[in-house]
Amino acid sequence: MADTSTISGILRTLVLPEMWNTIYMLLLTSILSMIFGCIVALIMICTRKGGLHANRVVFIVFETVVDLLISMPFIVLAVALTPLTVLIVGTSIGKTAALVPLTFVTTPVFAKFIYDGMLEVNPWLVQAAKSFGASDIQILRIMVKDSVPSIISGATLSCVTTLSSIAMMGAIGAGGVGAVAIIYGYQRSNYTVIWVVVGVLAVITQAIQIAGEYIYKKWR
């Protein structure tokens, strides 16, 4: 039986083994959401009014889906996506299965940050690139490069949001430290376990923010 009588016992037997599952979900979800988020943001920036290939219908569809997913309660969405998760992964339980709903939730958040960051790019910079005969790809590269600081800030906040979502996934069988807090803490009324998990999550959150600030300052 797990030793939950001391903080060191909780960390050694419960939290640390599951912390790696949390980090696994955090890293893979962040990578996937960054990839898909970039694609969605580029489509939106190109099809918006005044964009490189303005298309009102496409833009409204993507904007609506992004806003809808951002506003949707995470647990409700995770449960609703169970059939899709089973179709893709083969199961709805476990750390790998959790990547599907987590990616659906974090991708629109990241896409929104990239899109908003690219909107802040000086329009004269884009006009100058067009006047020199730059291709669409070259113009997008300029816009992305100029908005990197905003993207870094957005990525940092997205990772923190992802971490909170991962903790909630413990309620539906994803594992991780969130599951430890629910199973060994809440269900057994052991608040020491809960506060140890809170402390660990706070440390991880702080580490993400420090890393984000470091990268931001280095880029600036």
Automatic annotation (TrEMBL):
Could you tell me the Gene Ontology terms of the biological process aspect for this record? D-methionine transmembrane transport
Show which residues constitute the signal peptide: none
Q: Topologically, how does it sit relative to the membrane?
A: Multi-pass membrane protein
Domain (ABC transmembrane type-1) spans 19-216
Domain of life where this protein originates: Bacteria
Kindly state which keywords UniProt assigns to this record, in alphabetical order: Cell membrane, Membrane, Transmembrane, Transmembrane helix, Transport
Q: Read off the PROSITE patterns from this record.
A: ABC_TM1
The subcellular location is:
Cell membrane
Query: One GO cellular component from the entry?
Result: plasma membrane
Q: Which residues cross the membrane?
A: 23-45, 57-90, 166-186, 192-216
For whether the record's keyword set contains Cell membrane, the answer is yes
Q: Family, per the entry?
A: Belongs to the binding-protein-dependent transport system permease family.
What is the protein's name according to its record?
Answer: D-methionine transport system permease protein
Please name the taxonomic classification of the source: Bacteria, Bacillati, Bacillota, Clostridia, Lachnospirales
